[in-house]
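Reviewer 2 asked us to include a model.

Predict the structure of this chain.
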Amino acid sequence: MMSMDFLYFPQDKSEYIPAFITLTIFVIGAIVAVYLFYKYSKKEEKLIEEKYRLHEPKNKEQQKNELS
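Predicted model (structure tokens):
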């Protein structure tokens, strides 16, 4: 039968504390990263909207001139 030595469940539960701290740090880091991506995405969205809003009247004028 195969040995399950790679699974280690310590009797002293205080050995879980470093793992919990590391997990907490990575979860907080992930949340911060998602927030920063979201914030950057909104900033880019505003820039693109402004850019194409500025070009919109030119396109309409060009279409009117082409039709005339």
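The helical segments are 17-67. Residues 17-67 form the longest helix (51 residues). We have added this to the supplementary material.
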